[in-house]
Specification:
The protein is mainly α and 80 residues long. The protein contains two helices and no strands.
């Protein structure tokens, strides 16, 4: 029985090590994507960056409208 516990423990340790390794790989990929994104923004002209700002403003307005809609649905749910 003790041998079985140690075998399970060994498998668990190996699984955790693999999981941590994969997490580090994902983190590295995200960091690389962030670097690429930053370089793309730097290489863009000011006009294009302004367009991104306009798009961000429009997206935020849409998010606000969706929040209002969800609030209204919540009120209907509470009343009903």
């Amino acid at each position: 029985m003790t041998a079985d516990i140690w075998m399970v423990f060994g498998i668990l340790v190996a699984t955790i090590a693999l999981f941590v390794s994969e997490l580090l790989r994902v983190e590295s990929a995200v960091l690389m994507l962030g670097t690429i994104y930053s370089k793309l923004l730097i290489s863009r002209s000011q006009g294009q960056v302004a367009d991104y700002g306009r798009l961000l403003t429009e997206a935020n307005e849409e998010v606000d409208a969706l929040h209002d809609y969800l609030d209204a649905l919540q009120e209907v749910k509470e009343i009903g």
